[in-house]
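Hi R.,

Here's the chain you asked about this morning:
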Amino acid sequence: MAQPATVAQGWPDDPVPLDAATAPVPAYGDGSLADLLPTLVAGQGVPGCEARIAELTPADRNCVFLIDGLGWEQIKAHPDEAPYLTSLLATSRGGTGRPLTAGFPATTATSLASVGTGLFPGGHGLPGYTVRNPDTGELMNQLRWKPWTPPKVWQPYPTVFQLAHEAGIHTAQVSSPVFQDTPLTKIALSGGTFHGRLSGEERMDLAAEQLAAGDRSLVYTYYSELDGAGHRFGIASDAWRGQLMFVDRLVQRLAEQLPPRAALYVTADHGMVDIPFDEDHRIDFDEDWELRAGVALLGGEGRARHVYAVPGAQADVLTCWREVIGDRFWVASRDEAVALGWFGDRVDERVYGRIGDVVAAAHDDLAITASVNEPNESAMTGMHGSMTAAEQLVPLLEVRS
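And here is the predicted structure, written out as tokens:
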């Protein structure tokens, strides 16, 4: 902790609030996760889809392997644990050696919906880990889908997988069986056939088989355990590094089985940062009277908060949050965040009320936890959600047969 200033040194000036307009908005439209599948299926001739990522070359058979929590910066920092992934860094984004951006917030439910629908968060309507349902006033957990909400009402648009299947492309998802019937899968990743396999090796082998099963194929496969190790132990832990080593072998296993005329794209839904367990890096909302004042509901997650004010208190809550954490978080009103494009180029009317009256995105290594109402999330070491490079930048590594 920093030492207090002495009289001779002089007291520091009041912290300068961050300008919300300086937040690095994701590269929606030509370099975000939402742009990937529309680009791939446009190259396969699916009507109504356009190639948005200009650097990618069409292939007849496309496989997307999404590794939960595998940020661009984390790969670059661990060449010894991930030699194969490291060898592919120069292939990222069509050989430019550049990453994609996840989208805001950089969290699993939002990112998977962006990948599967090809829409930005303001369109598909999953703009956070937990958000308020304007129809009920309750917080809706969009990863665990609690409380129950009709999926097709919450996200009514077709997925890219459905469009590809209807266009005659052999379409398949290969993942853990536990995800087959989840609402998130249905609204974001459904279309074609779902194949459940328990082990990572089985998924890689079946993904390769499914890729070869059609003259034109679109296959999606997924691995979640790296993210779980990061949340529990942190990305500096042996457990996380061990998972990274395993992921590296899985990618190579799949790459070595690609059928002819195929492209494998390895990407992720977000990166991650470790947040120390001390008062300088964690502010407990449930114990902080200033941040709680005028707040009816706290949504989002530690590094990307949706703050829902008591009616009539929106301006006061915005002022307070800017005064208390505005030098370490980008803090914006709902209208400011929408106008700045944090959720994409448009926000559907049904989605507008899901966004917080105040939206706060972490700039520093800091989290707003909630020890009483979010005990499990507050106990996590690794976190994500904001617009920092460590969270936003994700790979698009490419292998072609």
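One quick note: Confidence is low (pLDDT under 50) at residues 1-12.

Cheers,
M.
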